Amino acid sequence: MTITESPNLHPAPVPERSRRVQGVPSIAKRSPVPERSRRVQGVLSISTFLLLLLFSASLHAKDPVRYLHPFFEKVVIQKDIEFGESTNFEGKTEKLLLDVYSPEGDKAKNRPVILWFHGGGFRPGNDKTQSYIVKLANDFAQRGYVCVSINYRVRTAPKDDKKGTMTDALSDAMKGLNWIRSNQKQLKIDSKKIIVGGGSAGGMLAVNFCYKDQTTGEKWDKSGIIGLVDLWGSPEPDYIFSTIDSQDPPTIIVHGTADKLVPFENSVRLQKELESVRIKNQLVTIEGGEHTPVKFYGDFAEKIASFLYDLYSKK
User: Who's near 306: CB < 8 A, 6+ residues apart?
Assistant: First the structure.
């Protein structure tokens, strides 16, 4: 059989001009983009980029920072742990109890710890479960701290013997601090990162506790204390039994200008003393705030967290 080539098997020759047109990419056939349009497109591209950048930054800004912002949802509270015994003003033995607040599910070790002292005028009626102390302990545990709230000895007539009242409270507070040191492994805390805080009478106790120094006749170990939180508790001169020096811890003071129980001027005076020996400090003034100004809690809690974070992050 003879196979013949069919003319249909070969395409007809394409004219030279048509071949040139077919070989040029289709974009070459588009009309040129006006200069104004190109500028508009460029502006839109830059605007889109900036919007994406701002959106990304806003998402990042919302990420919580441990110790600075609430970081944990829940807190574990261990209540009524006995940390010592003392003889009270009536000559009776008194068991000293504390509560521990820890962030639930936290795997971190060597965490900073805050030792909280309640208020109440050194009289019976308040203890480690005082409402704003519980609020502070829960809040700062959620931020990642371990918080310990303790009881200390009080009296029915504390003003009859102010030095004896403060001496008893200081002794119990030191027992609380030593208990923390002895249990640092179980608590998973760093005993070199201790913060002491208190409100009202607890603030007076905290001030005396942190500024008190060891003498030849009395051992007083305040090593590891890196910060003091004084909440509307700057003492009157007759409740000060310690002297401030340059080795004392950085201090943040929170006080309302309308406080009729503990005068705001006490905190102004305390800040001047801190400045005189160049101790890092901050006075958070609550204009019109009365004693225990908890309605301003959100504002001053953030300032405390920021002050402490700065101390902790540099250690």
Answer: 68
How does DSSP assign 6-23, residue by residue? -GGGSPPPPPHHHHHHHH
Decide if 198 contacts 231 (C-beta within 8 A). yes
- pTM of the predicted model over 0.70: yes
What would the CATH number be for the domain defined by 75-313?
3.40.50.1820
What kind and span of H or E run contains 114? Answer: strand 111-117
Half-sphere exposure of 314 (CA within 13 A, CB side): 9
Q: Which pair of structure tokens corresponds to residue 134?
A: 């519980």
CA-to-CA distance for 123 and 128, rounded, in angstroms? 13
Burial 254-284 (b: 16+ CB within 10 A, else e): bbbbebeebebebbeebbebbeeeebebbbb
Going by C-beta distance under 8 Å and a sequence separation of 6 or more, which residues neighbour residue 229?
114, 195, 196, 197, 198, 206, 251, 252, 254, 304, 308
Supply the DSSP symbol for 258: T
Q: Helix 297-313 to helix 131-142 angle, to the nearest 10 degrees?
A: 50
DSSP state letters, 122-166: TSTT--TT-HHHHHHHHHHHHTT-EEEEE-----SSGGGGHHHHH
Give the C-alpha separation, 286 to 11, whole Å.
93
Amino acid at 86: S
Which whole number is the average pLDDT over 242-262? 97
φ, ψ of residue 195 in degrees (nearest 5):
-120, 140
Taking only the tens place, the pLDDT of each residue in 145-170 is 999 999 999 999 999 999 999 999 99
Location of structure tokens 């400045």? 275
* CB hemisphere CA count around 205 (13 angstroms): 32
